[in-house]
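So, read this over?
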Amino acid sequence: MSLEKALRIVDERFDWCVEFLKKMVSVATVNPPGENFGEFVNLFAEELQKFSEVEIVEVPQKIVEEFRRDLVDHPRYIAIAKLGRGEPVLEINGHYDVVPPGDGWSRDPFKPVVENGKLYGRGAVDMKGGLAAAALAMRALAEAGTELMGSLEILAVPDEEIGGVTGTGYALRSGLVRPRWVIIAEPSSVDTIWIGHRGALWLYVEVLGKQAHASTPWLGENAFTKAAKLVARLEDELCRRYSKRRSSYPYDDERAAHPTITIGGETRGGTKINTVPGRFVFSIDRRLIVEEKLDEVEKELREAIDSICKEIGCRTRIEIVNRLPPALTDPNNELVEITREAIEKIVGRTPKTVVCSGGLDMWYYTTRGIPTITYGPGPMEQAHKPNEYVELQQIRDVAKTYVYIAHKLLAKK
């Protein structure tokens, strides 16, 4: 009976949930640099202390400085809300930082409004809507008097938008949380479960030449033209290789089942129109399918660059700037199966169980052997766009799904 009661309370408290979401979106937690993080966690704690225990932890300044020295003047905070006691722990993870609003908005991005069943504002779908759904689920379980064998916790973290090292990464490394199962409330949409995500390797390739006056180019060595030859050969060779590799798992976009490479997202070099450029730098974004390993991918890239450079007479330096391992949870894991069952009962659809094309905080958990899925209110296509919105019905459905999952995993029988 407690499950039916909790599901009913989701409907009864839904107006509170929408108002709470409006308050969260109104706090402009733009990252970088990390604005208003303290204001946000205080708001979060004030609301959730009505029905759970909440702890706020400041990420040590030395940890922030180690990874992002430029952000050290902006404190980072983690909020942990808990219902129940002891283990096992089901954790719902959500980040509260948002990307800058950018251009193209027809409304103030931090003055949320509801129109036609949608709540508009920066961070509405990515991913304060997911945090609102988690809070509503926890409140419903608490007010239904559900007895738990263990704990349900919500982990509200900063810095997912800049890699998560000082958010989810710190929470796990420091032992703040020790979950048995994890749901990340990113906007997968109500009929999709992400059981993993692709990995990423980011690097800069600096092509070295010799600067000279453009009136006597024979005295120099043009780094740009060398880079152009290297890029053309590199893209052709690697794209042919990657087209022959295919993951054995389904993806949210089947084109993502192959490794991909994007060259030139960032470029820099040269000093003046009448100067032979002595250096030119271009970026590489290499995405990994879940079967690939970062070390092997890096080795393959370095060898390909070295081989081509020997043929065309090119000198380079390589700088690795980001390593994001792919993540995967067994699609037959009990967390996946229970979530699938919950969606079928609550939403009335058979969900897709796929790997996410992008990158998420899942790997922090899966590399530690913790079963992790991503499931939250969408539509996912709205993330990072102007006039971002979340569908309110999806928040309601996801909150009920969280209630169902928590009841199945934790409720006393």
Remarks:
- The first strand starts at residue 53 and ends at 58.
- Residues 223-243 form the longest helix (21 residues).
- Residues 264 and 308 are 17 Å apart (CA to CA).
